[in-house]
Amino acid sequence: MTVRHFLDLDRLDTATVRRILDLGAAYKAGGQPHGKVRPLEGRILAMIFEKPSTRTRVSFEAGMKQLGGDVIALSRTDTQLGRGETVADTARVLSRYVDAIMIRTDDPQKLDDLSAYATVPVINGLTDISHPCQVMADILTYEEHRGPLAGKVVTWSGDGNNVAASWIQAAAHFGFEMRVACPPTLCPTESVVAWARDRGGNVVIAHDPAAAVAGADLVLTDTWVSMGCADTDRPRLLAPFQVNAALMAKAKPDALFMHCLPAHRGEEVTDEVMDGPQSVVWDEAENRLHVQKGILTWCLL
Ligand code: CP
Ligand code: NVA
């Protein structure tokens, strides 16, 4: 049987992405979409964290345990990866012990190597170029508040980073208009935009946040300085893209605000937006748990 990896939204067909979201929603509703209370009984997930994490770590661990399984969390210094053992050899060895591997890393090549050599499912827990688990939770959050994303306008204001890239890929699956307002030097890569457009995704890259937010159904942002990113010019470049009350006022009156978190209040987003009536950031964070269950069971069952 083919091993089911959850690597990126550009490597999954729309029906599969939909299936995983539906599984997540079913688990959130208290259902047993696989007909068992503990469908992952006896299964073990190894989690490799080469960068810090609160939500990803805890939601995968809680989700796996709620499904009857268990986890082993490994930091950079816990394994021989930190001393030069190859990702390929690590993949071969971990596959003999555990049933699935999640990795959070800087280099997307490590994710590819892991999935190439592992004989168990590999899950992308964030790389420098994408964060698909996050965007799955974001989509679930939008759908439960406002219904399908098709035909909606989603605006990202800020760094054209890993989370933005997964949102652009999602536009090719779900038929919404994806506007990214970013500084010219911090745009999403041409390849991610081209991939989405080639598949009919409506992706607009712009540099005026007010114009990009006009009429939006959903406004998103993220930190000015992602993990491992040392560019000290970012605050100056990204300050005009801050999501504040004035910017939110340009979106539709019932527009939602989301942020993958951790937020840097007063930088990319103000308190009044984070804590305001349009913010669904805590539901979004909660939905990481439910979506991880969808991902884990899709990979393993
Ligand atoms: N949003 C997110 O992935 O958060 P963590 O870095 O805390 O896992
Ligand atoms: N863009 C952020 C996301 C954190 C969840 C980062 O990579 O640090």
How would you sum up this structure, described in words?
With 301 residues, the protein is α/β, with parallel strands linked by helices. It is built from twelve helices and nine strands. The strands form two sheets. The protein has a five-stranded parallel sheet with strand order 7-6-5-8-9. Helix 1 (14-28) crosses helix 5 (132-146) and helix 3 crosses helix 4 (108-117). The longest helix is centred in the last third of the chain and has 20 residues, at 281-300. The mean pLDDT is 97. The protein binds phosphoric acid mono(formamide)ester and norvaline. Phosphoric acid mono(formamide)ester is lined by residues 53-56, 126, 134, 260-262.
Keywords:
single chain, 301 residues, alpha/beta, five-stranded parallel β-sheet, four-stranded parallel β-sheet, 12 helices, binds phosphoric acid mono(formamide)ester, binds norvaline
